[in-house]
Amino acid sequence: MTTTRPKRKLAYHTATVRNAILTRLPDALMGGALKARHVAQRIEIAERCYASAVWPRDFDGLRIAHLSDIHFGHLLGAERLLQAVDAVRAVNADLIAITGDLVDLSAAEAPLLFEQLSLLRARLGVFVVLGNHDHLDHPRAVVKGARDAGLIVLNDESVRAGGRDGLLVAGIDWAKSIPACTARLRRCGAGRADLLLAHNPKAFPAAAERGIPLTLSGHTHGGQVARAANRRHNLVFTQRLSAGHYQREESHLYVTNGVGAWFPLRVNCPPEIVVIEMRTR
Ligand SMILES: [Fe+2]
Q: What is the distance in A from the centroid of ligand 1 to the CA of 16?
């Protein structure tokens, strides 16, 4: 990385301490069993099909691979990363969306990550937005690594995928609250997007308000510990939109469990890669 590292923020140090106390220490006390059990869980390929009257007819049947919350670092290392990348490649999607938290703590861990992500290919491109963990240490290094790997990083902007009449893909950077997400979405401009990538599912109310047919998010990890009978009953109490599919009129949201985590426990909440087929109603 050639970008100069800025002074590390308090949030980075807080996350490092949390990681040491809640992840590394218990894992060490269990002789590595916690991490081993965590990464032994199979990454599920979740196939979904949604229809919207405002999804562009030219892209009826488009298949999107959604990968999120890799958290590359201590819990998710090289071997697991290869599994995830291979799984996404095997899907052979038209477009790949990566919705943030590419790294867990530090962008210093990023070179191998971006070497692997550079292997991802899709007809309409591979799009990325940043999550809160990408901002902990050195977000500019994450952006540079992604761009050097041939990925399209969307920082409160929208681009046409597939030429002048292509699919309008918008992406917003990490934002914590509904108003902050809404403000970022406003900055994307270029009319109503067809697809929105936002790490935080709190972007969905504004996306639905604008009639965006599909929003893809991560951040919650599906709550990580959920009731088998209802996976929306999970550990994430701060998010009404915490896991799976939500719909408001012609707008859909998918909140993925993601493939990684910062805490080594998943119950009724498997790591997943989502393949969404979008149809025009
Ligand atoms: Fe995350």
A: 15
Dump pLDDT digits (tens) for 161-176: 988 889 999 999 999 9
pTM of the predicted model as reported, rounded to 2 decimal places: 0.93
**Is residue 4 included in any domain, yes or no?**
no
- How many whole angstroms from 218 Cα to the centroid of ligand 1? 7
pLDDT along the chain (281 residues), means of 10: 66 82 79 81 96 97 98 90 97 98 84 94 97 93 95 97 92 97 90 94 96 97 89 86 96 97 88 98 93
SS3 4: coil
* Interval between CA 165 and ligand 1 midpoint (Å): 33
239 CA from centroid of ligand 1 (Å): 14
Q: Could you tell me the distance, in angstroms and rounded to a whole number, from the CA of residue 42 to the centre of ligand 1?
A: 18
Residues near 21 by beta carbon (within 8 Å), at least 6 away in sequence: none
Residue 103 CA to ligand 1 centre (angstroms): 9
Instruction: Kindly give the distance from the C-alpha atom of residue 104 to the centroid of ligand 1, in angstroms, as a whole number.
Output: 8
Q: 269 lies in which domain range?
A: 10-280
DSSP 123: T
Distance 263 CA to ligand 1 centre (A): 10
Ligand 1 centroid vs 262 CA: distance in angstroms? 7
**Residue 57 forms part of a structural domain:** yes
Number of neighbouring beta carbons within 10 Å of residue 105: 19
Residue 1 falls inside a structural domain: no
Residue 124 lies in a domain: yes
Residue 199 Cα to ligand 1 midpoint, Å, equals: 8
**CATH number of the domain bearing residue 242:** 3.60.21.10
CA–CA distance, 143 with 139 (Å, rounded to integer): 6
Domain count, the chain: 1
Euclidean distance between CA atoms 268 and 275, whole angstroms? 20
Tokens of 129: 């937005």
